[in-house]
Amino acid sequence: MTVGEIIDRLNKREPLAIIAKRLDMSPYALSKKLRVLGYEYDGELKKRIFIGEGEEPRHLYLQEATALQYVKTDYQVLIYEQLQKIYELLRKREEPIITKSIISNEKKKRTFSIRTEILEKLDAVSASEGMHKSKIVEVALMEFLREYEEVDEIYQDK
Hints:
Structural class: mainly alpha
Strand content: 5-15%
Strand order of the largest sheet: 1-2
Helix content: 55-70%
Order of helices and strands: HHHEEHHH
Distance between the termini: 82 Å
Radius of gyration: 32 Å
């Protein structure tokens, strides 16, 4: 039975349960498939109307139309998964590299005055990442010193 025939029968007040039984499915499954295809019941007009995107699938059989709809959905899932992978790759590139070991394990204590807003952000990052604040500051200083050395080398070459 084509989608058009099903819609016509429903609009002529034939019960959904009888049509579903002919198609060997539950009324709920038939109703859901019609909604997925873009059909909804309009209470004012007292009939089912097409509100979906694209061309109305009246000429297709119900199984064909729903199969085509699921293919579209699968592409959406694939695109979403690819975007998630891209996002993860970009996120990994932005994370600081903390795995590099320091040559010396010797540590010294220093006292610094830092703006309150920066300390609050440091507290938040430390709590969310589960890292010690001293380790975060150490990594940030190492990166700064590496950049400073590169800049220093550029000026020495001139």
